[in-house]
Amino acid sequence: MTTSKRPTAGRPRSAATLSRTPGAPGAAAHEYAIEAADATGAVVDGTDALETIDAPRERGRRQRVQSAETGMVVLKGLARLGGRASLTALALHVQQSPAKVHRYLMSLVEEGLVAQDADSQHYYLGLEAMLIGVAAMRQADPVRAAEPALVRLREAFDVTCFIAVMGNKGPTIVRFEEPGLPVTINVRIGSVMSVLWSAAGRVFLGLLDDPQVLAMAESEWTQASPEHRAQLDAADPIGALRASVRTAQGACVRDTNLTGISAIAAPVFNYDGRLVGVITALGATGGFDARMDSPIGEAVRREAMAASYALGYRAPLPADA
Fold first, then answer.
1. Which H or E element spans position 242?
2. Domains, the chain, ordered by start
């Protein structure tokens, strides 16, 4: 499109005129020949005038997008505070003025995403928000959530890794990733791991308050060899082991479950903080740094937390938050 200047006598300096392009009946707005007077009084024909006319429309679109983003910040802030909060607490949490937060809350109330308690005046997540949450929870699958984490661990550290879930016979491997040169081990998808002597089993033991899991641990302890027993606390082997797992939020083993193999494991939690899986990385003991604070130990915990986050888990807020 070209720009042409013609005399504009008798025309307002800032006026824009639209004339239909000959031979284009019913043409859309962008098919019109657009003429607008520029600052010099000349007529500009083309893109500049089109942009001048479209500018308010674009500003309106951006404002709507920004409003939607702010509304989502308010809604997520309410969820982050446990799903119920006062206007003051919510405004402080999202770092917006109470008046502004109140305006957005009213819109969310109208849509059923938020409701207000008549007695306390606190706001809480409404029915529509709960329906959205239920739909999301139905899709939450710890195995699917952990798959990207397993791939990243395998590629970053060239190690074998897997996710296990608690089955009726014990911790069971349900997804397995191997590097190009895998470590030779006799476990695969469907293998059941020891509760006491595998890293994955120890995480389940430490973070699940399940009588069945405790019974499995007791049974393994009674059948353990003297060499295995020597690795745990003599006075309270199971209790001390559980406490150490809770403190570290993970577990590591060296040559306990499989000779020559070391492993590090970390928990995967779901939306309500329940343990639903354990991610484990393992390798040959000589070249595998099986410490929770080692680079691979930190990576395993980080990837387990990423999988937990994908399932809707959020770490509890501090008491003074």
1. helix 237-248
2. 66-138 (1.10.10.10), 142-311 (3.30.450.40)
